[in-house]
Amino acid sequence: MRLESYVTKELHTISSYEPTFQELKLQVYCDVFGRFIKEFKTYQPLLSAIKKEYENTLAYQQDKIRELEPLRSHLRLVTEECDRRIQARWAEEQAEIGALKREKQQLQRDVKAMREKEKATQAVVDRLQSELSNQYLQYREERDARQLLIWQLNDVTRGSVKPSDENTEGAKDPVELQLALKVCRKDLTKAQEELNRMKAEYWDVVPRRNWDTLEQTHKQNLLQLKTLQGDFDQLKREYDTLLELHSRGSVRIETHDPVTVQMEESLFHGQSQIQSNHLEDQINSDAPKSGTLTVQEFRTALRTAFPLKSDQEIEELVDSAQSEPDNSDDTISSQRLHSLLAESGARALPPALEESEENAASNTCPASD
After folding, report:
1. I want to staple 297 with a disulfide (CB 3.0 to 4.6 A). Which of 16, 178, 245, 293 is the partner?
2. Over the Cα atoms of the chain, what is R_g?
3. In terms of Cα–Cα distance, which of 82, 311, 208 is closest to 319?
4. What number of CA atoms fall less than 13 Å from residue 52's CA on the CB side?
5. C-alpha–C-alpha distance, residues 268 and 254, integer Å
6. Between vectors from CA 203 to CA 197 and to CA 207, what angle results, nearest 5°?
7. Would you say 159 and 170 are in contact if contact means Cβ atoms under 8 Å apart?
């Protein structure tokens, strides 16, 4: 009760508005805890150690706080500097935006002025074209009128010699010509308008012959693409199947015991020997009696014997066989093929089985006494 009264009294005297309120409050509880430890003699060492550890931790935290105070001040200064730069940059951007807006408005005014100028120029051009057309029509009418006057003068000149009925027929000719001329002018104007309309509507139209050719080529390309896509899908499925089988085979080989590895090795050697004998019998049956093979027959036999070799490796074997003294550019001795088969039989064991053999050998070592 005295300790509780002391705590209440001391906390009451401390104002919460003081800067060191928390430290003073902690000091009061430390004093009370020290008096509490003195009263319990049995647990005094343990409680003293606990108090000491807490005091060390608080001292360490206070040291850290004092170390971080300069960083806090520096952070505040950096923050203020960044804010100042941001404000300056924002002011510059606002100024640039204002300048760009003014420039945009000026450009819009210039565009508007240019459009008005273009409209005025187009109006002048239209007016000049209309005047030119009127002058051309006047010139044409004047030319036609002169020709009519010349014809009439010629008719009058001829009329003084020809009979009166011919003069009447000649007097009617200029009128008919004038009517025909008007009809021709109308037809010419209509044909010109039709030509302009056709040019405006069909300026980007391609000929039907070219269109048919392009359409046929497009259909052929689509068919080829469909065929290639089908071939690609089939090859992809085969590749995925082979990859899955290879992965299963690798996992199965890694997990087999030595006995299984030996069985697989024996089975593989037997199959390799059977395939080699079968291939050798086929080669002996297909080879000519002279003991030679053509280059194509030699290449086909190599592809059958070594299906995993690439085309480049097959060609290297063919070139190596042709370079031997007993062979030529057209024929190759079948003995060369038998030697290659013998060499491949010595290396018939796959790497996975070889590794399994080594592991089996290491696993079957005699146990120590």
Report:
1. 293
2. 56
3. 311
4. 6
5. 17
6. 115
7. yes
The SS3 assignment for 347 reads coil
Of 53-67, 154-168, 316-330, least confident by mean pLDDT is 154-168
Q: What is the DSSP string of 239-273?
A: HHHHHHHHHHHHHHHHH--HHHHHHHHHHHHHHHH
3-state secondary structure of 369: coil
Query: What length is written for the chain?
Result: 369
What SS3 state is found at 308?
A: coil
CA angle 321, 322, 327 (to 5 degrees): 95
Pairing, β 331-333 against β 292-294: antiparallel
Task: Check: CB of residue 234 under 8 Å from CB of residue 313.
Answer: no
Q: Are the beta carbons of 328 and 322 closer than 8 angstroms?
A: yes
Token representation of residue 336: 């060369």
- Let me know if 151 is exposed, middle or buried by CB neighbors in 10 A (0-12, 13-18, 19+): middle
Query: Whole-prediction pTM value?
Result: 0.26
CB-CB contact of 309 with 315 (8 Å):
no
pLDDT tens for 327-358 read 666 778 777 777 777 666 544 444 444 444 44
317 and 340 Cβ atoms separated by less than 8 Å: yes
Per DSSP, the three-state class of 287 is coil
Q: And the tokens for 186?
A: 């109308």
Burial of residue 261 (CB within 10 Å: 0-12, 13-18, 19+) is buried
Q: Where would I find the beta strands (DSSP E) of the chain?
A: 292-294, 331-333
The conformation of residue 330, written as its DSSP 8-state character, comes to S
Distance of CA 97 to the CA centre of its chain: 36
Q: Please give the backbone phi and psi of residue 17, each rounded to the nearest 5 degrees, phi first.
A: -90, -5
Nearest to 37 by CA among 53, 49, 23: 49
Per-residue pLDDT tens digits for 182-233: 888 888 888 888 888 887 877 777 778 888 888 889 999 999 899 999 889 8
Structure tokens at 22: 């928390």
pLDDT tens, position by position, 263-322: 445 544 554 554 555 455 545 544 444 467 787 887 888 777 777 778 888 888 888 777
